[in-house]
Amino acid sequence: MKHKISFREINKLAVPAIIAGIVEPLLSITDTAIVGNLEFNSIEALAAVGIAGSFISALFWILAQTRSVISAIVAQYLGAKKLEEITSLPAQIIVINVLLSIVIYFVTVNFISIIFNWYNADGLILDYAVSYYKIRAIGLPFTLFTFSVFGVFTGLQNTFYPMVISIIGAVLNVILDLVLVYGIEDFIAPMHIEGAAIASVIAQMVMAVLALVLFLKKTPFNLRFTIKFNKEIKRLLALSLNLFVRALALNYALYLANSYATSYGANYIAAQTIAFQIWLFFSFFMDGYASVGNIVSGKLLGEKNYPKMYQLSKDLVKYTSIIAVLLGLISFALYYPIGRIFSEEPLVLTTFYSIFWIVILMQPINAVAFVYDGVFKGLAKAVTLRNTLIIATFIGFVPALLIADYFHLKLYAIWIAFTVWMLFRAGILIVIFKNMIRETKS
Question: Which end of the chain has less neighbouring CB within 10 Å, N or C?
């Protein structure tokens, strides 16, 4: 039996996954870049998009944890050649996801001003953030539907269709952003920050329709919802609940970062918004290779092929680290032009440039953490992932932030805390994975 997946085989999954994965942050980056270059109130608008976008991302990451679980379970049944046993599962979890997201939308819309006050937003920043959120969050059910379908495709070892859908969504979003934010003279009035939100929602709707069509035509599953739940629904929901708790811990760290940045002043949260969007883009870019761990490890677990799984993890760390270094070199080479893509405000740019180097240097650490995140998701080790994030957040991130903030390091404090956070995440998962492989050999 072959104990190594070739570079070509990895790239066949990874390259489409990279393209598909960067779309969500690309939507946010597009909004950030276009809003940050508005002719009036650009700092406040940029800050508002950062706050609202952070909260929307928090909701999305919390609710979308079933994507990884669906992928892992489908991959395991694919590896065991028993897909017919979970025919009803995708439809059931998709319906649950979409209904839950609709309920959360209506609840949050009624309390969104209070929620953004917790982020220390007030005045014009608060007004913009509320306006942006009320429109942009309409797309949440469509995005969750799309990513649930992506989970099915990746479980089937297919990253091509998610890539196609994502490309179409990204291109459409960029075009609509330019048209709706700036307007077309004598045809469409400029819509400012609301235009960016509307553009994202339309793109998400189109992606959902495409996902629906391909799901029905290109998978062995259907969307007929049955009251009798599949035997795997209990395990899927249990795994999702653990990843839900994990996502809460993750988003608590992100909430603290944005809350502290907002308290420092408008130019700080604007600079933090730029830095975090770039960090997020890099993360999803590298996650293309890391997601191969998620996609393939579940299948290898179904086959009980542990040697191949171990070799895969080593290869993915190597490839993802190379991607991280290349991204870092490009970023250092374009250090100042990158900032000017998002804003022309001198105070914002000065603040951003002061910490951008930390964002760049931490990418190899992120690469390792993301690979093992993906592997453990593929193995459906949700409890391990949950506990790792809780430890990383409350023993790593929070103390680091509080100590650094005590010394008035401001955005340095936030990014020092992020670096400590990722070191904890990578280190813990490496140790656990190596112990697990050692036990399978004994």
Answer: C
